[in-house]
Amino acid sequence: MIVFSVRHQHRYLAFRLRHAQAVLLELARSAQYSAIYILLIGAPIFLSALALFDFPLLYAPLLPPLAGLAVVFGYTALLSLPLILMRKRLLPLEILQWRAALPISPRLAQIAHLAVSGLVLLPLLLACAISFLAWLWLWPRWLPSVLLPAGLLIVFALLASWALGAYVLQHRCRTFQPQASGRSVAVPSSYTYHAAPWRLAAIWHNLFWRPFWRQENALGWQQSALFLLSAACFLIWTLLGLPSFFPRELLGLFASSLLMIQTDRGDKAVQAQWQALTPLLAAWPLQTRRLYLLAKLFALLPAFSTLLFMLLLWQQQAKYLWVANMYCAFGLCASVLLVLLPAGHARLRVGWLVVAILILTAMGSEIW
Fold it and tell me: Which of 353, 334, 367, 347 is nearest to 257 (CA)?
């Protein structure tokens, strides 16, 4: 892994590195409260997961060739996932529009992409090194026979994810179409007002629903993916038989976490959109409190739909029906309280989120 120094480099390269550092610092600041509570409550689980970070590649040489290749490529894709998810922050539309007017050579652009990709992968490289040292300290019986090929596979996965991350950034630059300034806009000659039968719902649809699906805003797709993943976890947890060695509580923890996280993300998106719209709505003859309340209620819709569906399903499947009813009731109350919390209390919000997930996991372990 190559680490580029900001000094004595091209100004464009220095700008890209400093922007990537700012994005990583912003991400770290946004996750600091969550990290504190996770370390206080689940420090042993976090350390165990960190030690197991390299286990797939250490165990891959012992698998059949096709299965080993699948593990290697899957691990490479997993290492590249953070940069793929952060590509719009690392190259926002403003930088792409500004970059299109600069005389940047392809070689310099490729070096900048490699530098940013390497900078984003540095925390994962540190996690790989810690995990590898932990396995060397444990030294299980099967490790000496696979130490050399596993080490080569780790190096290959890091280099491949580094190159894949640079390709993702290059592809984003290549597919960007600069917007022409000064475009003529057709002005309608006449306008006819049509009163909507559901005026408040129509305004909510235009201000709080459609913006989350347009252009660079992928929040609608992300919330849909979280909703489907949460429903799938609940269905697997409820209907499918799991192997005896797989802890069912772990799947319950994952399902409960997704249930609360999708509500938290939806409510934060509503609050951010409301702050952006507040100066505009101040001049409208509109009851803004009702609109804000409607947007807040729709943030609860995914969790309410999942809990209602599972409540109907658990009437036939649950071993302890009263615990299942209490699980759904507490999940709905926890989601409502999360939405009602004020936006300025980040620590209180994260604390309630962690406590609610732990209580739901404990209640869910009693259902089956």
Answer: 353
